[in-house]
Design brief:
This protein has 428 residues and is mainly beta. The chain is built from five helices and 15 strands. It has helices at residues 3-6, 15-27, 45-49, 257-260, 295-298; strands at residues 77-94, 102-105, 112-122, 127-140, 158-175, 178-194, 215-230, 234-241, 267-277, 280-289, 323-333, 338-347, 368-379, 382-396, 410-427. Belongs to the OmpP1/FadL family. Keywords: Cell outer membrane, Membrane, Signal, Transmembrane, Transmembrane beta strand.
Length: 428
């Protein structure tokens, strides 16, 4: 065994040092798209290789970023990984009387490096603690050719949203095979918009609408989780994450409703895993994300024509609907040293056909993703995991999407995604 792993059982890294290193790495990473609206499709390389399934199928320490009760099932371990993410996004505008017609690529920024990490440790037979630091989600478009130049948009156009979550966790095994967990969730988010000058005229605060650089805010919520084992072949899990209200984006107080408010929507879900064969585990997750309850995301542009400006209470947003997300995945232990994974995830499209004009900036419309993954154990306490993900192109074709006041016509938006990732796991 390599010397670096020979003393792993004696390794006791301070939790604060681990958290600090991972937070610094994640905070420096740029944003990208995600597959469940703007949420990530999973946390941890092992779950991502199995379609994102993990509510009742925890495999590494990042599982606590979805279900905190999983900490009691993971032993003492640390995982650090990264993803190289390549979205393909853009728009087509046709039939517009103001000169917007054209095909526009939003791929001016690619690829993206997305790191994540986690740590869990049992304190005794009943209580485990941990921390996970990862991206909750994000959205990025960069149009070198501004789709709204005919309206007076100057320079490149696009948005860059990143949400980082830090989840210290405590989980308690209340009976044999029955655990509950809780995580106070700190969200740090950054946002920037460029090239949207024409819309600032419809804002209550046009000076704080676009091209103001990156603004940051933070807030705290809570995530609750349950994980139960029924015999040695069946697990059930559930989680709830509260709506989180970070501070306002003051630099974009004229863009987002309620003077720059951009909350993180509530989410909840349940999962099942079964082990029909000793070497095979199958899992399925369901998740609901309540985008419509966040004004900046869920309000329709129609409110603008009801007399409410951008930035006002009840003002225009991106018109996103709530989404249901389904995931299935399998894990097959081919040998003591090799584990294989595959999965599929399906999400509702959050963008209605009548809301595509503003979603030229935020086309989070992919609906399905396919994944493959594998873990190779190369020492008694060390392993490396890799995965690939492909989300085929999804197009939402506008229907009554560009109001007559903006020249009419239709905006079609599209998104496809490819990702490869790797993580290193250490049993301590």
């Amino acid at each position: 065994m390599p010397q670096v792993f020979a003393g792993a059982e004696r390794l006791r890294l301070p939790l604060a040092a681990i958290a600090g290193a991972i937070v610094t790495t994640v905070a420096l990473a740029p944003a990208a798209h995600a597959t469940d609206g703007y949420f990530l499709n999973g946390s941890g390389a092992k779950a991502k290789g199995a379609g994102g399934v993990e509510i009742a199928m925890p495999q590494d320490s990042l599982a606590i970023a979805v279900n905190p009760a999983a900490a009691t099932e993971l032993g003492h371990r640390m995982d650090v990984g990264f993803e190289i993410f390549v979205p393909d996004r853009g728009a087509r505008i046709a039939g517009n009387g103001a000169g917007l017609d054209g095909n526009y690529s939003g791929n001016g920024a690619n690829p993206f490096l997305l790191p994540e990490g986690g740590y869990v440790r049992p304190l005794n037979e009943s209580v485990s603690v941990g921390i996970a630091i990862n991206g909750n989600g994000g959205m990025n478009t960069h149009y070198k050719t501004n789709p709204f130049a005919a309206f007076g948009g100057t320079g490149s156009a696009g948005v860059n949203l990143s949400q980082i979550q830090v989840s210290p966790t405590v989980a308690v095994k209340v009976a044999k095979g029955q655990s509950f967990g809780v995580s106070p969730v700190l969200v740090i988010q950054g946002f920037e918009m460029t090239g949207a000058q024409p819309f600032a005229a419809y804002s209550q605060d046009p000076a704080n609408f676009t091209n103001r650089g990156t603004d940051w805010s933070a807030g705290i919520g809570v995530r609750l989780g349950y994980l139960g084992s029924f015999g040695d072949k069946v697990k059930l899990g559930a989680f709830y994450q509260s709506k989180i209200k970070p501070g306002r984006f003051d630099k974009y107080a004229g863009l987002f409703a309620q003077g720059g408010s951009f909350d993180v929507p509530a989410a909840w879900g349940a999962g099942l895993s079964v082990r029909p064969l000793p070497a095979l585990t199958l899992g399925a997750d369901y998740k609901r994300i309540e985008y419509s309850n966040v004004q900046a995301v869920g309000n329709s542009i129609a409110t603008l024509f009801q007399g409410v400006p951008f930035g006002g209470d009840g003002g225009p947003g991106f018109g996103w609907r709530d989404v249901d997300v389904w995931k299935v995945g399998g894990v097959y232990r081919a040998s003591e040293a090799l584990t294989l994974r595959a999965g599929y995830g399906h999400s509702d499209n959050p963008v209605p056909r009548g809301e595509t004009m503003l979603n030229v900036f935020a086309p989070g419309v992919v609906r399905g993703h396919y994944t493959l993954g594998a873990t190779v154990k190369f020492a008694d306490n060390a392993e490396v995991t890799g995965y690939v993900m492909r989300a085929p192109r999804q197009t939402v074709r506008g229907a009554g999407s560009i109001p007559a006041a903006f020249g009419g016509g239709e905006a079609d938006v599209y998104l496809a995604e490819t990702a490869v990732g790797m993580s290193f796991g250490l049993t301590l």
